[in-house]
Amino acid sequence: MRILALETSTDWCSVAAGDGTHWVLRDEQAGQRHSQRLLPMIDAALADAGWSLSDVDGVAFGAGPGSFTGIRIGCGVAQGLAFGRGLPVVPVPTLMALAHHAFCVHGWASVLGCIDARMHEVYAAAYERVEGTWRERVAPTVGLPDALVQPTAGVDEMWAGAGNGFALYPELASRLKLGAVDAAIRPTAQAIAELALPRLAAGEGVDAADARPVYVRHRVALTTAERDAGIRL
């Protein structure tokens, strides 16, 4: 099966097109320019794959948590592309994709993902890889870094940390007694695609109208004073 995947929940804009064996990737640090960069990156990835949208069997996107604006853009574009072609959509949790990328890079099978949530908070979740699939050990949450706790460890289990939250709050690694940390790991469209592809093949995609982001933080607006201070959600 062929899948198109989008990941826009961080400062990076990422697109992947592939079938599980061959991947075409586009990654760019977009800042707040996801709305400008995403469609051209999709066009470029499909062109390099030698496909049109008609050749794709489904669309996946990073559903969050993460940047409100980025998630909305990724979800909206995935819905628009899928609706026009009657394609199924597969929402994939951002922090699971982060854990999956950490596994691909380092082989870590117990991953505590932690990314910047702005407003002096972090998004975090924990995942454990068992028999080739990821199990959620701690559901995505948002809160102060000081409130973050290590998941309960099993026998001979050592948790690793991934995500830019560990760069912003470096004391977390020692406080949580993590075995290793890579703050440069981020969710990527290829990780989204690799997680979504078996779900797509199993018929677990949803109609475009039913695809939903996972915000976790339900506050969607800032006060005037917060905006003037440069705070971002």
Explained architecture:
The structure is a single chain. The longest helix has 18 residues, at 68-85. The chain is built from seven helices and ten strands. 32% of the residues lie in helices and 27% in strands. Helix 1 (34-49) packs across helix 2 (68-85) and helix 3 (94-106) crosses helix 6 (189-201). The protein folds into two domains: 3-94 and 188-228, Nucleotidyltransferase, domain 5; 95-182, ATPase, nucleotide binding domain (Nucleotidyltransferase, domain 5). It has 233 residues and is α/β, with parallel strands linked by helices.
CATH topology of the largest domain: Nucleotidyltransferase, domain 5
- Any guess at the CATH architecture of the largest domain? 2-Layer Sandwich
CATH class of the largest domain: Alpha Beta
Task: Detail the poorly predicted runs.
Answer: none
Shape: globular
Percentage of β-strand residues: 25-35%
How many beta-strand runs?
10
Mean pLDDT: 92
- Helical proportion, percent range: 25-40%
Q: Order of strands across the biggest sheet?
A: 3-2-1-4-5
This entry's quaternary arrangement is single chain
How far is the first residue's CA from the last residue's CA? 36 Å
- The number of helical runs is 7
What about the largest sheet? Answer: 5 strands, mixed
CATH superfamily of the largest domain: ATPase, nucleotide binding domain
Order of helices and strands: EEEHEHEHEEEEHHEHH
What is the gyration radius calculated from CA atoms? 17 Å
